[in-house]
C-alpha cells in the first residue's frame, strides 16, 4: 500500500458529501460524525475571552463575532459540523420584541404574552432585517470548506413558552393554560412563530448552511395527544417552509430535537425530520425502534457524564456508539447542551474516540 492509502480516511470534498449529511440521509459514512449542542459557549476559554464586554444578543448580530465564535469549537475539537452561534430568541429580537438574555438565567421577556391581544400585537419578522445573518453564514461557509454548517431555529412551542412565561420555567403551566383556554389564539401564536422560524432557517440555508436543526427543547412537557394536536402541525409548517424534499436548493437534512421527548419520538419524526434528536433517557436502540427505519438518530450521551472520570466517559461513549448502530444513521451528540463546567479537553477526547471506534 502507498503512504496515501495508509493515511486517514479521505476527507469529504464538500459539505454536501460530509459524514454529517450522509448519516442524516442514512447513507454509508467514513466514520460516525460528531458535534455537540452548545459546543460554542462557556466551556471554551477562548469564547469567554471573546464575549467579555459584549452582551449575548449583540454578539449574535455581529457577523465577525458570530463567525469567530462558531469556528472556535471546530478548530479546537475537530468536530464534524459547526453550528451557527446564535440563539432561538433572535428572530423575536430582530422583529422588535423586548428580550434580554441574562447570564446564568436565559431569555427574559419585558412584556410577556398573556392575552389574545398580546398575540395579535406581536411584530412580524421582516426578512431584510436578517442581512447580518446571511453575511455571517456566507463567511462561515467559506471558512469552513468541507465542514458543514448547521443552521437552526427554535420551534414554535419552545418559543411560545418563553413569550408566555416571560422567561425560563420548569412546569410551563402558564403556557399550557393558555394553550387550553385560548385554542384559537394559541394556533395564531404558533403560526406566527412558525413563519418567523421558517424565515430564519431559509435565510441560513440560502446563504449556504448544509443542514438545519429545529430545537423544540421543552416539548417533552406535553402529552403525546396534546403535542400531536396542538404543536406538531406548527413544527411541520416550519419544515414545510423550506420546501418539499427533493425540491431545489433548500433540500438539506432536517434535525429535530427536544428534551424528555421519549414518548414523542415517533411524532417528532412525523413532523418532518430526517434525524430525530434523542436525550439520554431513551437508549438509541430503543429510540431507533420508536422512530422506525426511515429516520436517522442524533444523540445521546448525558452531558453530566463528561464531568465524571475518564473511564466512565470512555465506557458511556462506547455504549452510545454501539446502541447507535441500531439506527438508520447516527450523528453522535450529547443528549442536551454542553454544561459550562465541562473540561474542553474531555470534549476533544470524545470526538477522537468516536472517530476511532467507527472508522471504516
Ligand atoms: O453551540 C451551539 O449550540 C450554538 C449556539 C446556541 C446558543 N443557544 C448559544 C447560547 C444554540 C443552538 C442556542 C439555542 C437555544 N437557546 C436553545 C435551544 C437549545 C437548548 O439548549 O435546548 C434554548 C432553549 C435557548 C435559550 C437560552 N439562551 C438559554 C436557556 C440560555 C442559557 C442561559 C445561561 O446563561 O445559562 C441562553 C443563552 C445562550 N445561548 C448562551 C449561549 C452560548 C450563553 C450566553 C453566555 O455566554 O452568557
Automatic annotation (TrEMBL):
Q: Which family does it belong to?
A: Belongs to the uroporphyrinogen decarboxylase family.
Write the protein's name: Uroporphyrinogen decarboxylase
User: What biological-process terms (Gene Ontology) are attached?
Assistant: protoporphyrinogen IX biosynthetic process
Cite the Uroporphyrinogen decarboxylase (URO-D) domain residue spans from the record: 33-42, 150-166
Cellular component terms (Gene Ontology): cytosol
Example of a GO MF term: uroporphyrinogen decarboxylase activity
Reactions mediated catalytically: uroporphyrinogen III + 4 H(+) = coproporphyrinogen III + 4 CO2
Q: What is its main location?
A: cytoplasm
Subunit structure, as described in the record:
Homodimer.
Q: Which gene encodes it?
A: hemE
Q: Which InterPro entries match?
A: UROD/MetE-like_sf (IPR038071), Uroporphyrinogen_deCO2ase_HemE (IPR006361), Uroporphyrinogen_deCOase (IPR000257)
Q: Give the EC number.
A: 4.1.1.37
Site positions (Transition state stabilizer):
87
Give the top-rank taxon of the lineage listed in the UniProt record for this protein: Bacteria
Pathway assignment reads: Porphyrin-containing compound metabolism; protoporphyrin-IX biosynthesis; coproporphyrinogen-III from 5-aminolevulinate: step 4/4
Which organism encodes this protein? Geodermatophilus obscurus
Instruction: Give a short account of what the protein does.
Output: Catalyzes the decarboxylation of four acetate groups of uroporphyrinogen-III to yield coproporphyrinogen-III.
Where it sits in the cell: the answer is: Cytoplasm
Q: Tell me the residue numbers annotated for binding substrate.
A: 38-42, 87, 162, 217, 336
Q: Keyword annotations for this protein?
A: Cytoplasm, Decarboxylase, Lyase, Porphyrin biosynthesis
